[in-house]
Amino acid sequence: MKIVIAPDSFKESLSALEAAKAIKEGLKRVWPHAKYELVPMADGGEGTVQSLIDATGGIRVNQEVCGPLGKPVPGFFGLLGDGKTAVIEMAAAAGLEYLKPAERDPLKATTYGVGELIRAALDQGARHILLGLGGSATNDGGCGMAQALGARLFDKKGHSIVRGGAALAQLATIDVSELDPRVAETTFDIATDVTNPLTGNLGASAVFGPQKGASPEDVQLLDLAMKHYAEIAARDLKTSIDGVPGGGAAGGLGAGALCFLGGSILPGIDLVIKEAKLEDKMQDASLVITGEGKIDGQTIYGKTPIGVAKAAKKQGIPVIALAGSLAEGCGAVYDHGIDAFFSIVPGAVTLDVALRTARENLTRTSENVARVWSIAQK
């Protein structure tokens, strides 16, 4: 009997690999002689680097870079097992986590550090880069990233514009003649689970700006600046970035990756499944178990359990999902490849207790799943 265990992380309690090991421990209590394939998963956001390092036998590379407001931060990226692919979470350089609520300022925040991480990955020999979007403190359309890679952005007087989203209103010319030549030799896959465009009511500034500290007046200013940036990019780079699904991800970094890196925007979970070779590892499996911290009505929109389930259903394999909590709309996952799902929390407990006991709860629930499955097989 072969079982594939492919969970996402259980946020604030277990990494994807730790979750997979806890599930295996519970299953082995019932099926000690089964073959287990552990494939840590992620959907392109937080935890993607570690999941793919664990899934491919890669390494983590630490690299101090410019933070969202210019102060150095301890960035990192993953160099995967093939030695040629790097995976970068933009939040490792420009994440909201680096700023206290009172410090958040999307008018000034920059993705410059993301460009520095890309440059460091190129220095390591990577020529295929997965860039995970999400958790950003920025709203600069990826222009800071481009500046770090050698692009020059000028105002009407020929001066370089300062970093940050507000400065895009002063943009007059984009010059990529000095962009790092290795960018053209590299394939960039951009992972995101949002489809917001760059501008407008559903754009980067309007939807995500407020959580980054933008006032209503700031949102209006940033959106106008972003529209202006899109016009200049269309003229100077011959790339249309306004209206592209996912272009508004990470404060417009999705759009910046299109026009400066020549990247392709794809669902994060699909990229992780591909790089982890999940479908190959599912061959001849009798059961697939996945999971994450919460299953609700939003799970069907690009989250890990659904991506794993769709991959399993291509081979007709049953799928069980485990979650820290079940919320409104969770039943929708039945129509997307998950055959059964269970909460691992045994009863009414505080969040602190649930997080602290996640491993033992996950192990116990996995054992019970195996016991019920065994009864069904008889």
What does this structure look like?
The strands form 3 sheets. The protein has a 6-stranded mixed beta sheet, sandwiched between helices. The protein has helices at residues 16-28, 48-56, 91-94, 112-123, 143-148, 204-208, 216-236, 249-261, 268-276, 278-281, 304-313, 351-356, 358-377; strands at residues 2-5, 35-38, 59-66, 72-79, 85-89, 128-132, 152-154, 173-175, 187-192, 264-267, 287-295, 319-326, 340-343. The protein is elongated and about 80 Å long. The two termini are 15 Å apart. The chain has 2 domains: 2-38 and 286-377, Rossmann fold (3-Layer(aba) Sandwich), CATH 3.40.50; 48-269, Glycerate kinase, domain 2, CATH 3.90.1510. It is α/β, with parallel strands linked by helices and 378 residues long. 35% of the residues lie in helices and 19% in strands. Strand 3 (59-66) and strand 4 form a beta hairpin. It contains 13 helices and 13 strands. Helix 1 (16-28) crosses helix 13 (358-377). Belongs to the glycerate kinase type-1 family. It holds the Pfam family Gly_kinase.
How is the topology of this model organized?
Layout: E1 2-5, H1 16-28, E2 35-38, H2 48-56, E3 59-66, E4 72-79, E5 85-89, H3 91-94, H4 112-123, E6 128-132, H5 143-148, E7 152-154, E8 173-175, E9 187-192, H6 204-208, H7 216-236, H8 249-261, E10 264-267, H9 268-276, H10 278-281, E11 287-295, H11 304-313, E12 319-326, E13 340-343, H12 351-356, H13 358-377
Parallel strand pairs: 1-2, 1-11, 5-6, 6-9, 9-10, 11-12, 12-13
Antiparallel strand pairs: 3-4, 4-5, 7-8
Helix pairs in contact: 1-13
